[in-house]
Amino acid sequence: MAMNVDEVMVKDVVTVMADASIRAAAELMNHCEIGCLVVVNGKKPIGILTERDMLKKIIVEAREPHKTRVIDIMSKSLITATPNTNVGKAAKLMFEQKIKKLPIVENEQLVGLVTLSDLMRSEEIIDLLHSIPINGAPKRMIKVLSPYFADSGSRFVKRRKRKCPIIRMNGDTIGCQMEKCMWWLGDECAITKLTRKMTYDIP
Length: 203
Hints:
Layout: E1 15-17, H1 22-32, E2 36-41, E3 44-50, H2 51-59, H3 70-73, H4 87-97, E4 101-106, E5 109-115, H5 116-119, H6 123-129, H7 139-145, E6 149-151, E7 156-158, H8 165-169, E8 184-185, E9 188-189, H9 190-201
Parallel strand pairs: 1-2
Antiparallel strand pairs: 2-3, 4-5, 6-7, 8-9
Helix pairs in contact: 4-6
């Protein structure tokens, strides 16, 4: 059965007002341990602010974060979807627009947020992206896709699912849950890393 984004989206979205300072926004992102904020006017989303925006428009341009407002650097051309948008269409939209985060809107009000990482756990998405050219994809998106695809140079080639050695011992066949797993540290599974190290360290 086809899956819609309301089944995978985050519903408690952290937001910020457009007139807040960048310093306040950065403190909020740091406190919540998140990489973006949806900018709202009331409950209506009007933009999005990411860590990348802060890096490029504050740090690189040497602007003062306590004087610069969110509205000054946020991405204003907001790309959105509705809760009943199919996950395949949502992923295709994100890939075409070169975005990793997609606000979900209903009746002009923010009701959720879905990331490319969330969508990539669906087989439906993997099959869809298998036919999409890799040329021109931003590095930040390729990084998200790399656990699922090998780089053939021009297209995404589906990578064989990695299986957790712990799960395999119990006879299950579920694929790697990545950052949702308690053994996921940084950008790699601690069990897989330890297994590889032991394999190469044994004489």
